[in-house]
Amino acid sequence: MTRAFVFPGQGAQTIGMGRALAEAYPAAQAVFDEVDEALGEKLSALIWEGEAEALTLTENAQPALMATSLAAMRALEAEGVTVTAASCVAGHSLGEYSALAASGAISVSDTARLLRTRGQAMQAAVPVGVGAMAAVLGLDFATVQTLAKRAADDTGKVCQAANDNDPGQVVVSGNAEAVKHAIELAQEAGAKRAVMLPVSAPFHCALMEPAARVMAEALSHVEINRPAVPLVANVLAHDVSQPATIRSLLVDQITGSVRWRESVMWMAAHGVTEIWEIGAGKALSGMIRRIDRSVATRAVGTPDDVKNAIESMG
Question: Which residues are catalytic?
Answer without folding.
Answer: 93, 204
